[in-house]
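User: Show me an example of a complex going from sequences to structure tokens.

Assistant: Sure. Here are the input components:
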Amino acid sequence: MLLREVGYARPETVAEALELLAANDGARALAGGQTIVNVMKARAASPDALIDLNGLDELRGIDLAGDGTLTIGAMTTYSEIVASAEARARPILGEVCAQIADVQVRNRGTIGGNVCSNDPTNHLPPLMVALGARMTIAGRDGEREVSSGEFFQGVYLTAVGPGELLTKLMLPAGKADGFASVTLGVDGTCICSAAASLNGEVRIALGCVDAVPVDLRPASSDEQAVRDAVRGAGLAPPSDVHASSAYRTHLAEVLAVRAVEQAQKAGS
Amino acid sequence: MAAIETSRRISVTINGTTYEREVEARKLLIHFVRDDLDLTGSHIGCDTGNCGACSMIVDGTLVKSCMLLAVQADGSTVETVEGLADGDELNKLQRAFNDHHALQCGYCTPGMLMSATALLRDNPSPSDDEIKKALQGNICRCTGYWNIFEAVKAAAS
């Protein structure tokens, strides 16, 4: 497919990338390209220019601090996370990244691209919410840090504004995590998903049932408490060719229970 | 400051030959390789990033070349299916595909071969599940996959 005519720049520093994004209204960041290039083929988006982040080594890499906090550069690929010894400090992260699409997509697709596209069917937005991730957003005026709850704002919409970039994600220490999904084929797009974390408080985030991950804090990890929390959330997910609204609502409850069970096993 | 350009002069080394061309930023790597360089071994199946027929190895990493701009490959070393055989002499993996009747129409074969090549390079003795997982990004509509799986397994042994 021939794309609409587009400009291209490959900055060598984050500062330069921010200048280019701020100075060009129609410019968009190009991370792994596994979403935006296809969106451009479909003419669903037609940016005037792509600012390629692939030359920015400062946005890559995984760092494990002494207190167990993981800091992951936004341009780190799923394959790099799956292969990383440091990332195993929070095992669920690599386990979920290994379920995204296929080898080729995992080799190019990035954690930052996944959360910034904020497609409700993506794996990582609910996982980041359940794990209590914090995101660092850089702009020309400096950096700011937001919680995952503040980060996801709507379908394809995040706290990253025009002229800004997500630079890194921080995950606190923890092992009692789970993720369950029903997908289109093995490792396919999620029809419904749930992430759970039982490190301290009980936290569940549901994917594919609303514009942003639905963040639930059940009173306990007891199965009935989890079911009650999902039922009490007033879910009204969209219907599509893959699942009716009622079926997605049912899946959300079942998957929340499965994710919590996995988290209990992982933490024991 | 890097300039925003709608076309660039790029240099890409493909199967050992370096090509320098002016290329539009909107051109995907698969179109550059097929249309500009006439290396038509790599195929375009779905053009939506699903089928894997356009798979190539770029700087040692398996990618789908319909989701990479040609300008992004500037300075890269690319391997395509044309680089596997030594003249008319098929390599071990290609012979295994032949021996196991691992193709019918052959459309997906270039991508299958590149995915299997990437797998066997990283993991010379893959388990059955590892072979299946490695070929997950490549769709075949003829064979039912089984003979492809058998061919990769034979090439690994």
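The lines above are the inputs; the final block is the predicted structure for all two components together. The helical segments of chain B are 29-36, 92-99, 109-122, 128-134, 146-156.
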